[in-house]
Design a protein that fits this description.
The complex is a heterodimer of chains A (473) and B (44). Chain A has 2 domains: 236 residues, no CATH class; 184 residues, no CATH class. The longest helix of chain A is centred in the last third of the chain and has 32 residues. In chain A, strands 1-3-2 form a 3-stranded antiparallel β-sheet, with no helix packed on it. With 473 residues, chain A is mostly helical. Chain A is built from 20 helices and 3 strands. Chain A is globular. Chain A is 67% helix and 3% strand. Chain B has a domain of 29 residues. The longest helix of chain B is centred in the middle third of the chain and has 25 residues. Chain B starts with a helix and ends in a 5-residue tail after the last helix. The chains are: A mainly alpha (473), B mainly alpha (44). At the A-B interface, helix 1, helix 2, helix 13 and helix 20 of A face helix 3 of B.
Chain lengths: 473, 44
C-alpha cells in the first residue's frame, strides 16, 4: 500500500510537472517587480504548510470544529417581503441580461451579457458568498419563478390538489451539479463562441428551462440542493462564511465551522474536483507549456480529417478533463495515504469524510485566479449598466466611465493571490486535522493519517503558484 | 516525443523548481516511515 502511495505520488508529481499550472488566465496581470523569484514563493508557501502541520499536531489535540454552534445576531425585519423582493430583482436582472444578449450589439466588449455572466455572476457571487453567506439563494431567479408558479398553482387548484413531486434519486446526489459546472467551464474555456452575446443568452434560457423542469419534477428545494450547478456551488462556498441567513435571521458562527457539516452525498468530491480542476486549466491554458502542447494535439485530430477549429476544441477538451482528473488523482493520493494508518476506513468513506477540506482550496484557487479579473473587469459594469445593449444609450449617466488599470499594482495582485493560496491550503489542513482527530483513535494516528494529505496540500499549493507564475509571464 | 520536449526545455525547466517542495515532503515522509519500520519491524 505504501509503495502504491509512493508510486501515485511520483505519477501525480510528474503529471503536475507535465501539465504545468494554473491560476490567472482570466486575470489581467501587469509586469511585476518582485524582490525574489516566483518559485521561491512556492518554497515559502510549502514551508508555511509544514510549520502549520507540525503546529496542528502539537497544539490541536482534540476536535474543535466538529460541532456547529451558531448564534442569532440579527432578526431581519420583513424577511418574507425581502425574499420576494430579492427574487424579483433576480428575475429582472436575468431578463435584462438575456434581452441584452439577444437584442444588443454582438460585440462582447459592448454587450452587458458576457461581462455580467463571466465576471459579476461567476466570479462576483462566489466572492460575496464566502464573505456574507449564500446571497445567490436570495436572488436566484429560477427559484423565484418556481416559487411564484407554485404559489399561484396552489391558490388556483387549492392546497393538496397538486401532485407530490418525485423523490430525488439519492444515487444522483450532486452529480448533476458537477456535470453542469464542467459544462459551463467547457463553454467558458473551450467553446469558440464563448463570448458571443446571443449564444450566451440562448444558453442562459436553456439553463433556466432545465432548472424549472427539474424543480417541477423533484421539488424546488431538493433540486436546488443537489442539481442546480450554480446554486449548489455558491451554497458550498457560502459554508465557509462566518454568517448564515436562515428563516429570517442572521446567524454567526466560527470561521470554517459551517463547512464541517457538509453532507458527503454522491458527486460532492467530483464537484469540488471540477471546481479546482477547471480553474486550474484556465490558468494552465494561458501558459507556455500548454501552448507548446496544444498545437501538436490539434494536429493529431486534424490528421484524422477533422477541421482546425473543431480539432482545437477537442484538444482543449482533453486538457480540461485531464486537469480535473489530475486534481482527483491528487486527492485520491491523500485518501490512499490515510488508509496506510491501518484503521478499517474504506477509501469511499475517507473520500467523503474529507471532501469538505477541498472547499477552501477551491475558493483559494478561485480568488487567486480571478482576483485581478474581478478588480478590473467588474469596473466595466459602470458603463455597461448605462449602455447594456451597446447601442449608445446612457441610462444612468455612466456610459463614459472606463476601467482604471492603475488602482492596484501588479505586485499587490500577486501578493493577494499568493496569500489566498496559502490561507486556503492552511484552512484545508486545519479541517483535515480536525476531522482526522474525530475519526482516528488518538492524536498520533490522526497525525500519521494526514502525512499524505500534507503532500496533497503542498502539491496543490505548488501547482497553484506554478499556474499563477505561468500566466504572469 | 523527447525531441519536441527537449526543444522546449527553455520554456519549462523552471517548473521543476515548483515540484521541489512536493519531492522534499515525499522524501521526508518516506524517510520517516523507513525509520519507524526499522525501529518496529512488526509495523506495516
Amino acid at each position: 500500500m505504501r509503495r502504491r502511495a509512493l508510486a501515485a505520488a511520483g505519477v501525480a508529481a510528474g503529471l503536475a510537472l507535465l501539465l504545468p499550472a494554473t491560476a490567472a488566465a482570466h486575470g489581467l496581470v501587469g509586469k511585476q517587480d518582485l524582490p525574489i523569484p516566483r518559485w521561491l514563493f512556492a518554497w515559502g508557501a510549502a514551508g508555511v504548510l509544514i510549520v502549520s502541520f507540525v503546529a496542528l499536531a502539537t497544539l490541536w489535540p482534540s476536535p474543535r470544529l466538529q460541532e456547529l454552534r451558531e448564534r442569532a445576531v440579527w432578526r431581519v425585519p420583513g424577511a418574507r417581503a425581502l425574499e420576494v423582493l430579492g427574487g424579483a430583482i433576480g428575475v429582472v436582472v436575468f431578463a435584462v441580461v438575456v434581452y441584452a444578449g439577444l437584442a444588443g450589439s454582438q460585440s462582447p466588449q459592448e454587450n452587458l451579457a458576457p461581462t455580467f455572466i463571466y465576471y459579476v455572476f461567476w466570479v462576483g457571487i462566489p466572492f460575496l458568498s464566502f464573505l456574507v453567506g449564500d446571497v445567490f439563494r436570495l436572488f436566484n431567479p429560477w427559484r423565484a419563478i418556481a416559487r411564484a408558479v407554485a404559489w399561484a398553482a396552489t391558490r388556483i387548484a387549492g392546497r393538496g390538489a397538486l401532485p407530490e413531486p418525485l423523490e430525488y434519486p439519492r444515487a444522483l446526489g450532486r452529480w448533476p451539479a458537477a456535470i453542469g459546472i464542467l459544462a459551463f467551464a467547457w463553454v467558458e474555456l473551450v467553446y469558440v463562441d464563448r463570448d458571443d452575446p446571443s449564444t450566451l443568452a440562448i444558453m442562459a434560457l436553456a439553463y433556466a428551462a432545465v432548472q424549472l423542469v427539474g424543480m417541477s419534477l423533484y421539488g424546488i428545494d431538493p433540486w436546488l440542493r443537489n442539481a442546480d450547478p450554480f446554486g449548489v456551488t455558491f451554497s458550498l462556498l457560502s459554508r465557509l462564511a462566518p454568517l448564515r441567513w436562515h428563516d429570517g435571521r442572521l446567524l454567526a458562527r466560527r470561521p470554517l465551522a459551517g463547512i464541517v457539516g457538509l453532507d458527503p452525498r454522491p458527486g460532492t468530491v467530483a464537484l469540488v474536483c471540477v471546481m479546482i480542476g477547471t480553474t486550474s486549466f484556465d490558468g494552465f491554458s494561458m501558459g507556455t507549456v500548454w501552448n507548446d502542447v496544444a498545437p501538436d494535439l490539434q494536429r493529431v485530430f486534424m490528421d484524422l480529417g477533422i477541421g482546425a477549429e473543431t480539432a482545437l476544441q477537442i484538444a482543449f477538451t482533453i486538457g480540461l478533463v485531464a486537469m480535473v482528473l489530475l486534481v482527483a488523482a491528487l486527492y485520491r493520493l491523500g485518501v490512499e495515504g490515510m488508509r496506510t494508518v491501518g484503521e478499517a476506513h474504506s477509501a469511499r468513506e475517507l473520500a467523503g469524510a474529507f471532501a469538505h477540506t477541498l472547499v477552501p482550496i477551491a475558493l483559494a484557487y478561485l480568488v487567486a485566479h480571478y482576483f485581478s479579473a474581478l478588480t478590473y473587469q467588474a469596473q466595466a459594469m459602470a458603463y455597461l449598466i448605462s449602455d447594456p445593449l451597446g447601442d449608445g444609450s446612457n441610462l444612468f449617466g455612466t456610459a463614459s466611465a472606463s476601467i482604471d488599470y492603475g488602482w492596484i499594482s501588479a505586485n499587490a495582485i500577486w501578493y493577494v493571490q499568493v496569500g489566498a493560496l496559502i490561507v486556503g491550503h492552511v484552512c484545508g489542513l486545519i479541517l483535515a486535522h480536525d476531522r482526522a482527530l474525530a475519526l482516528y483513535r488518538d492524536v498520533r494516528a490522526a497525525t500519521r493519517s494526514q502525512y499524505w494529505m500534507l503532500v496533497v496540500m503542498v502539491g496543490f499549493t505548488s501547482l497553484g503558484l506554478w499556474l499563477l507564475s505561468a500566466a504572469s509571464q | 516525443m523527447s525531441g519536441p520536449v527537449l526543444a522546449h526545455i527553455g520554456h519549462w525547466w523552471t517548473s521543476i523548481l515548483y515540484v521541489a517542495p512536493v519531492v522534499v515532503v515525499v522524501v521526508w515522509l518516506a524517510l520517516q516511515s523507513w525509520r519507524a519500520k526499522r525501529r518496529d519491524p512488526e509495523r506495516r
